[in-house]
Amino acid sequence: MLTSHEWIAEDRKFFGQPNTAYDFETNDPNEAGRKISKLEETKTKLSKNVNMRAMNMLGKAEDQYNDLMRKKQIVENDKAKIETVIRELDEKKKEALRQAWEQVNKDFGSIFCMLLPGTQAKLLPPEGMDVLDGLEVKVAFGDVWKESLTELSGGQRSLVALSLILALLLFKPAPIYILDEVDAALDLSHTQNIGHMLRTHFKHSQVRTSATCCARTSNIHR
């Protein structure tokens, strides 16, 4: 028995001692035996309802959980990288749009004042807004800025539209342009101004037109 139960040798000195678990006057060994038997019986009954594979299942579930958490971390890291790239691209886009606006706005004003001397034209954001929120066409005769394009004549509005289109074309020039009757609604002075403007701003492009504005220009072909 000593060989089978090593604890007997260790606890033997407490056998029969008062106020210990081995105080046999206070603790009845027979009662303890009955309790043990009852507990063993309860254990046997409970063991029938215990899934012995639960620990294996728990281990697999923990492995799956850890794998999912690892993948989740990878996805979150990738998401953070993508968001960083998106922010960088947004900033580059905004900067490119501002640069495009500055160049187009400059050419728009230059072309319009050449088509209609004594005037100014600008592309400006509405009051309290940013360039990225939208742009409005502003036109001035001398130092007086018009409240709306409706104050302009039909010919003047045509020149505004033509100036804006040509300014956009200048931003990314093409080797050839075909203009058809761009001066149809304009008087002779404006027609001559168009020819002068094309010679000035489109030196490196070939322009073919059926309009009279370029009839006598040497670097623009009909």
From TrEMBL:
A Pfam family recorded for this sequence: SMC_N
Entry-linked InterPro entries: P-loop_NTPase, RecF/RecN/SMC_N
Coiled-coil blocks: 51-99
Keywords: Coiled coil
SUPFAM superfamilies documented for this protein: P-loop containing nucleoside triphosphate hydrolases
The RecF/RecN/SMC N-terminal domain, residue ranges: 54-207
Gene3D superfamilies (alphabetical): P-loop containing nucleotide triphosphate hydrolases (3.40.50.300)
Domain of life of the organism encoding this protein: Eukaryota
Keyword flag ATP-binding: no
PANTHER family hit by this protein: STRUCTURAL MAINTENANCE OF CHROMOSOMES PROTEIN 3
Name of protein: RecF/RecN/SMC N-terminal domain-containing protein
Organism name: Hyalella azteca
